[in-house]
């Protein structure tokens, strides 16, 4: 087990521990990649060569522990009752949607994703509230999010968290509409 995982949860909610990923959980993270909606851009899905592989994601987990020390990173969502990892939530700097916004919303971006079996049960909202509170306590003034217009489930979560749409545009002319949302902390 790696040192970051030994540190225990970073955030605790009623039903979840939000904590660093463990290298041995790379297969769960890869399952998130395999379950993604086909409308998700190709660079965020498993490619023809099967990448990212479990080994690639093990390496990502090792690297991400360094980011956690900077207050950024995607925390594993561990259900308290049974220890099952359901997905992730956290803060990233320059997430995949941010590049399309050309610096419009500087600063950290909230990101979350759940396994299909965990969706629709309020876990994303619960984890998102904890991450927004964490950002506020760290002295951040705002957090932003980018989400595809077709992703109504994520838009509902962000609405519950108090995010408001600031702009709408396509990342590239061939892409679906990308929404930029922000919340003042």
Task: Produce a short descriptive summary.
The protein is built from 5 helices and 8 strands, in the order H-E-E-H-H-E-E-E-H-E-H-E-E. The chain is of the alpha+beta class and 185 residues long.
Describe the structure using short key phrases.
single chain; 185 residues; alpha+beta; 3-stranded antiparallel beta sheet; 5 helices; 28% helix; globular
Please provide a written account of the structure.
The structure is a single chain. With about 180 residues, the chain is α+β, with helices and mostly antiparallel strands. It is about 30% helix and about 30% strand. The chain contains five helices and eight strands, in the order αββααβββαβαββ. It has helices at about 5, 25-35, 55-70, 125-135, 150-160; strands at about 10, 15-20, 75-80, 85-95, 110-115, 140-150, 165-170, 175-185. Strands 1-2-3-4-5 form a five-stranded antiparallel sheet, with helices on both faces. Strands 6-8-7 form a three-stranded antiparallel sheet. It is globular and about 35 Å long. Mean pLDDT is about 85; it is low at about 1-5.
């Amino acid at each position: 087990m790696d040192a970051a995982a030994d540190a225990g949860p970073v955030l605790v909610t009623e039903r979840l521990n939000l904590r660093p990923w463990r290298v041995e959980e790379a297969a769960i993270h890869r399952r998130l990649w395999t379950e993604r909606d086909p409308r998700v851009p190709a660079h965020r899905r498993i490619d023809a060569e099967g990448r990212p592989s479990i080994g690639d994601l093990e390496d990502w987990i090792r690297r991400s522990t360094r980011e956690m020390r900077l207050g950024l990173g995607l925390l594993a969502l561990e259900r308290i009752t049974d220890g099952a990892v359901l997905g992730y939530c956290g803060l990233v700097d320059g997430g995949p949607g941010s590049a399309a916004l050309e610096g419009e919303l500087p600063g950290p971006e909230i990101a979350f994703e759940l396994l299909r079996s965990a969706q629709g049960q309020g876990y994303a909202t619960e984890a998102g509230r904890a991450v927004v509170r964490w950002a506020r306590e760290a002295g951040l003034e705002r957090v932003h999010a980018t989400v595809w217009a077709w992703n109504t489930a994520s838009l509902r979560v962000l609405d519950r968290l108090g995010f408001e749409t600031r702009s709408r545009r396509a990342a590239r002319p061939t892409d679906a509409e990308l929404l930029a949302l922000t919340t003042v902390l």
